[in-house]
């Protein structure tokens, strides 16, 4: 973490809390208002009086530009610094941005005695300026209300939010998803479940509907509930059955009724606590109930933590096919607790790891090498390895989602590496035989082997990939599966594209290539070499 940047209205305690944080972290403290005064040799009211607000803002921006180059500093900014987009971008790219808030009455009480606040001439002005700046204060990483709290308490809470470990660094990994309309944060941190209230966006209503399946709610519902209650939220739980069967319109109708009974209104969030099934289902309900209520993802399977909770795809199945009804609806926050994987059946962990291998192969040789080195520690669910790996996958998916939020330009297509043969194998073997990730692992092996056959990829890399998948415990062969059935399903998948089967292949680690038309003979030869029969 480079810097901690405190933003917020005047009188919310940025200077006193900043000094408290700096003392605890033993980092330097910088107050940008004080820097302006030091550089100009004038007090802020004098600058406003003699040179005007424009001059002050220019000086402030120059100073922000300079101080943001430093590292490991606590920086308190002036109340209006967030108005300039350039400042907001600098804060974000060089630090974690925390907004301090307080009730208007509390702010007025704190500032009325002082004569160094040139923009504040009365109680009404506080409310007016607060409203004007509201949008800017929302566009931050974390928010904290300081009303009726001492700086020591606020400082302690901020360090808890960041997961500060006295001997080391911060255990929180934060990934910002920048989108044109509503960006959001992904927080990855062991133990975050018991502290969720610290990470929920400040503007949410207090009534909350938690949607979870029977198994996950028994395991983690109580922890989540007490964490929500600590933040004065009033949660209601609605359970659904485990498994794909819950992604269904009759269940959606049931969940609308539950939302009404729980008193969910426009600003009250729906929280998904569970795997991809619960995330897709609860997200669809959140997207459509009252034309959209805030949605929070707390993914509990590896697949959901590295993939399905990010990117805003929500939906349910129809009898005719999977995910046929749905929408793009972005969550307001994704809270990922890698320790929840400890109760996940090992088969689900292995299946989720296939997606992680995919990220490494297609986008990040570093991640792939890390997996090769540390896969055993990952399988043992050591949070020191699961946390950075999950966070890296989130970063990689976020980069694609930011470029192609609604899958319009093809950037997200690369996420389907290994998936076309994977889907064809899932269908050919009868749904339920393989977990999705297990079929994807076979698809990954097949795509790598196809890349070798087409002269694109060094055979050593295929051997390494196969070796890694097998160490994870994922099969890479097609024994017992019929070649023609797999091929038929590949064609079926792509029937709209004149029977040409486009493949995402690899030239090297991190170097994907889209091959528009792979000849049938080569595909069937690959399937045969991988063990599929006639
Ligand atoms: N929206 C997207 O972008 C996207 C992407 C990929 C997949 N999906 C969807 O995701 C779904 C599959 O998700 P999944 O693989 O997470 O399956 P899942 O949600 O069915 O969860 C698998 C099983 O694990 C259990 N479980 C979950 N968390 C647990 C925990 N921490 N401890 C113990 N048990 C736990 C669940 O009760 C369930 O029985 C599919 O419906 C698929 O369509 C969506």
Description of the molecule:
The model has no long low-confidence stretch (mean pLDDT 93). The chain has a 7-stranded mixed beta sheet, with helices on both faces. A 5-stranded parallel beta sheet has the order 2-3-1-4-5. A two-stranded antiparallel ribbon has the order 12-13. 46% of the residues are buried. Helix 3 crosses helix 4, helix 12 (302-308) runs parallel beside helix 15 and helix 19 (483-493) crosses helix 20. The chain is α/β, with parallel strands linked by helices and 534 residues long. 48% of the residues lie in helices and 16% in strands. It has 3 domains: 3-170, P-loop containing nucleotide triphosphate hydrolases (Rossmann fold, 3-Layer(aba) Sandwich); 175-344, 3-Layer(aba) Sandwich (Rossmann fold), CATH 3.40.50; 411-529, Dehydroquinate synthase-like - alpha domain (Dehydroquinate synthase-like, alpha domain, Up-down Bundle), CATH 1.20.1090. Bound molecules: nicotinamide-adenine-dinucleotide.
């Amino acid at each position: 973490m480079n810097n901690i940047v405190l933003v917020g209205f005047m009188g919310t305690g940025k200077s006193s809390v900043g000094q408290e944080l700096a003392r605890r972290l033993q980092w330097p403290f910088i107050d940008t208002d004080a820097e302006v005064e030091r550089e100009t040799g004038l007090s802020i009211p004098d600058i406003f009086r003699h040179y005007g607000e424009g001059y002050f803002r220019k000086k402030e921006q120059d100073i922000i530009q300079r101080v943001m180059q430093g590292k490991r500093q606590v920086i308190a900014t002036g109340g209006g610094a967030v108005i300039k987009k350039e400042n907001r971008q600098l804060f974000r790219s060089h630090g974690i941005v925390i907004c301090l808030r307080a009730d208007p009455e509390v702010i007025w009480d704190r500032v009325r005695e002082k004569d160094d606040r040139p923009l504040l001439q009365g109680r009404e002005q506080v409310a007016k300026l607060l409203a004007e700046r509201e949008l800017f204060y929302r566009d931050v990483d974390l928010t904290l209300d300081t009303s009726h709290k001492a700086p020591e308490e606020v400082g302690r809470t901020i360090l808890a939010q960041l997961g500060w470990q006295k001997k080391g660094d911060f255990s929180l990994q934060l990934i910002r998803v920048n989108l044109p309309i509503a960006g959001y944060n992904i927080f990855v941190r062991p133990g975050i479940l018991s502290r969720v209230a610290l990470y929920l966006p400040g503007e949410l209503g207090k009534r909350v509907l938690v949607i979870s399946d029977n198994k996950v709610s028994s395991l983690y519902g109580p922890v989540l509930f007490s964490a929500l209650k600590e933040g004065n939220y009033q949660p209601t739980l609605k359970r659904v059955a485990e498994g794909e069967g819950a992604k269904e319109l009759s269940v959606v109708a049931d969940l609308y009724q539950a939302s009404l009974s729980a008193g969910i209104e426009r600003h009250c969030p729906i929280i998904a606590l569970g795997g991809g099934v619960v995330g897709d289902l609860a997200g669809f309900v959140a997207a459509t109930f009252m034309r959209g209520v805030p949605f929070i993802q707390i993914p509990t399977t590896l697949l959901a933590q590295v993939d399905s909770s990010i990117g805003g795809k929500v939906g349910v199945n129809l009898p005719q096919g999977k995910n046929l009804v749905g929408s793009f609806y972005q969550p307001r926050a994704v809270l990922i607790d890698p320790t929840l994987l400890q109760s996940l059946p090992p088969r689900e962990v292995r299946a989720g790891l296939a997606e992680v291998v995919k990220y490494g192969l297609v986008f990040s040789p570093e991640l792939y090498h890390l997996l090769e080195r540390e896969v055993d520690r990952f399988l043992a669910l050591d949070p020191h390895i699961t946390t950075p790996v999950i966070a890296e996958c989130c970063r990689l998916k976020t980069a694609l989602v930011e470029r192609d939020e609604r899958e319009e330009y093809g950037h997200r297509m690369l996420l389907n590496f290994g998936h076309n043969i994977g889907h064809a194998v899932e269908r050919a073997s009868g749904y339920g035989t393989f977990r999705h990730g297990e079929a994807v692992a076979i698809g990954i092996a097949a795509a790598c082997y196809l890349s070798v056959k087409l002269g694109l990829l060094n055979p050593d890399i295929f051997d390494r990939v196969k070796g890694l998948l097998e160490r994870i415990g994922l099969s890479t062969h097609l024994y017992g599966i019929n070649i023609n059935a797999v091929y038929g399903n590949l064609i079926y998948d792509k029937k709209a594209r004149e029977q040409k089967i486009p493949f995402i292949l690899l030239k090297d680690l991190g170097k994907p290539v889209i091959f528009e038309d792979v000849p049938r003979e080569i595909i069937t030869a690959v399937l045969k070499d991988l063990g599929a029969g006639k």
